Amino acid sequence: MNKKNNELVFAPLGGVGEIGMNFGLYGIGPKSSRKWIIVDCGVTFPGPELPGVDLVLPDISFIEEQRDNLLGMVITHAHEDHYGAILDLWPRLECPVHMSAFTAAMLESKREPHQRHQIDIRLFKANETFAVGPFSIKAIPVTHSIPEPFSLLIETEFGRVLHTGDWKFDPEPALGQPVDEDQLSKIGDEGLLALVCDSTNAMTDGESPSEKAVNESLTEQITKAPGRVVITTFSSNVGRIRSVMEAARDSGRSLLVLGRSMRRVMDVAGDLGYLDGLPEPVSEDEADSIPRENLAVICTGSQGESRAALAKLARDEMRSLSLTKGDMVIFSSRAIPGNEKAINDIKNGLVEMGVRILENDEALVHVSGHPRRNELRRMYGLTRPTIAVPVHGEAAHLAAHAALATGEGIAQVASIRNGDLLKIAPGNAEIVDKIEAGRHYKDGLLYGDDRQIGLRDRRKLSFAGIVCLNVIMDEKLNLLDDPDIEAVGLPFTDGGGEGLEDILLEAAIGAIESIPTKRRRDLDLVAEAARRAIRAEARDVWGKKPQVTVFVSQV
User: Fold this and answer.
1) Which residues of the chain have pLDDT under 70?
2) CA–CA distance from 47 to each of 336, 337, 409, 440, 462 (Å)?
3) Per-residue exposure over 58-90, b if at least 16 CB sit within 10 Å of its own CB, e if not
4) pLDDT in tens, 43-52
5) CA-CA distances (angstroms) from residue 65 to 97, 394, 470?
6) Which phi and psi angles does 305 have, rounded to 5°?
7) Is the separation of the CB atoms in 483 and 510 below 8 Å?
8) Which residue, 68, 50, 66, is CA-closest to 13?
9) Other CB atoms closer than 10 Å to residue 242's CB: what's the count?
10) Contact predicate 381/388, CB 8 Å
11) DSSP secondary-structure letter at 341?
C-alpha cells in the first residue's frame, strides 16, 4: 500500500446521534485508495410518523460506491440495531461478514422467502484474532443482554482501537462469564489509541444491577403471585429469558411461551445450548388445563406492538388463554422512546381486566445491558485511551459521555455525528470531511428514501386524505355527464349536514365550465383547474387541503 497520506478514519452512517441503526466504517490508507471495513449493520423501527414503513435502514450509498475497496463486515452481536439490516443490505455490498455462531444462527432464522442470497459468513470465537486486510481484529467477549456479545480490538499500523459494541460490567451474568477486566487492563498497558464506546446509559449514575439480582427478584414475585403471571420482555434478551425460565421452575410453575419471535429466539438459543438444564415449556393446549397459580407465561409485546401476544391478551383475543382479576403482568423491559403511548394503551386494557401491573419502579424486574456512568469510568480507567469517541446514543447521551471522558483525563474527546469522517491518526483526532449519511426505508419488498417510496405523499394522505375526480368531455369539449368523484379520508359532511363530496364536485364543475371552450382542448389545464378548485373549496369548508388527483379524457 502507498503509505503517503495514510490515515486511519472512522465514519458512522448510523447510531451516532440516535439510538439504534448502528453502522460504522473504519478506513485506512490515502483518501484515493482507502480500504474499508464495516462494524455492525443495524436497523431502527418506524414510529407513527412513518406510515407503512417496515424498517428504517442506514443510507449506505457512500460505502456502496466504495465497494471495490470494501474488505468485509464485522458484527458485534445479534441485536436488531446491530445486525438487523444485513439481509436487506448485503446484496448491495457482497462482502465477507464476520460474526459469532449465535449471530449467524439468528440471521439464518430470520430470513424471509425472498432473501435467499448466500452471504459469505465467516465465524469467529471468543478471544480469536482474525485479519481483514490491513486490520487485525480480536473478538473480546463482554456481557450484554444476548449471547455472544463482543467488543472488537482493531489493530492497525497507527495503533489499536477498541470498538466496544454494547456492553456492561455484570459480575453475575445469566449467560457467559463476567468481562475479563485483566484483559482490558493489559490493553491499556500496551497502549490504546482510541476507545469507540457505547453511550446509551451515560446519563445514568452508578452501576447497573446484575442479571442475577433480576433473577432473584423475578423468582420472588412469581412465587408469591396468586394467579397467572405473564412476563413480557425483549425477545432477543436470551439472558432474561433464561432468568424467567429459572424463576418459573424455582417457583413451581409451568412455563408457556407466546409470540413467534420469542419462540424463534428460544429455538436458536436452545440449539446452541444456552437453555440447557431447564424444563421444556408447555403448549397452549396444555396450559389451558393448568391451574392459574401454577402457570407462568413469557411473551412478546413489551413495546406495545399491536399484533404481539401481550396486546392480544390485553384485548382478550388469544385462542386458548385469558387473563382475569388476580393475574399479574410483569414488564421486564424498558420503554423505547416513542413507544410509551402504545405501551400505556395495553396497560390500561389490562387494568380494566383487573390485572396487576408490575414494573421496575416497584421491584427489580429489569436491568439494562448498557454501562452506567461508574462502569464507563472503570472502562476508561482500565483501557486509558488517548482518544475517546462516544457513539450509540442521542445528542444528550453523547454529550454526557464526552463530559465524563474529559473528567477522566482523556486527552482527546471526539464529538461526532452520523456522516462525520473522523481522522483518528496520524496526529490529533479531528473531523476532516462529511460523507453522505441518512435514512432509507424498507416498505414491503422495496427500499428507498422518503421520496422514492412515496412517504412524503403518504404523510399528506394520513393528514388530509385524497380526492379522485374522473372527468369525461364530449367531442365539443362539454362535460358528457357529471364527473365521478371519490373522497377517501375526508369528513362525510360539512358543518351543516351537506355531503362534502357533493360540495367538492360542484366546485370542480364550476371551475371546468368557467374555462372558455377553446381552451378546454388543453386537458392538463382542465385537470389543474379542477384540482385547484377542489383543494380551495375543501380548505374553505373543512379547513384542510386534501391530495387531489384528476383524470380528464375526451370521447
Assistant:
1) 1-4
2) 11, 10, 39, 14, 14
3) bbbbbbeebeeebbbbbbbbbbbbbbbbbbbbb
4) 998 877 888 8
5) 18, 28, 45
6) -60, 125
7) no
8) 66
9) 22
10) no
11) H
